[in-house]
Amino acid sequence: MALRLVQVNFRALDDSALGRFWAEALGWGVSSQGPGVTNVEPVGFVRVS
Question: From CA 10, how far away is CA 42, in angstroms rounded?
């Protein structure tokens, strides 16, 4: 089974700007867990347990 990167989590001084940069670079979407935390993940990705 191959590994596939499905989420990158940023905590930085300007996490939203950093997240937007990487989302654009990877063609992914941006979401937020709250103030100071930005997640970048593939658009349409659904986790399966």
Answer: 15
Pick the closest to residue 30 from 5, 2, 7, 1 (CA basis). Answer: 7
Stated pTM of the model: 0.71
Give 5-19 pLDDT, tens digit per residue.
788 877 888 888 988
CA–CA separation, 15 and 20 (whole Å): 8
Task: For residues 22 and 1, give the distance between their C-alpha atoms in angstroms, rounded to a whole number.
Answer: 26
In the numeric block, the tokens 């979401």 are attached to: 31
Domain boundaries, the chain: 8-41
Dist CA 19 CA 38 (whole Å): 6
Do 18 and 8 contact (CB within 8 A), yes or no?
no
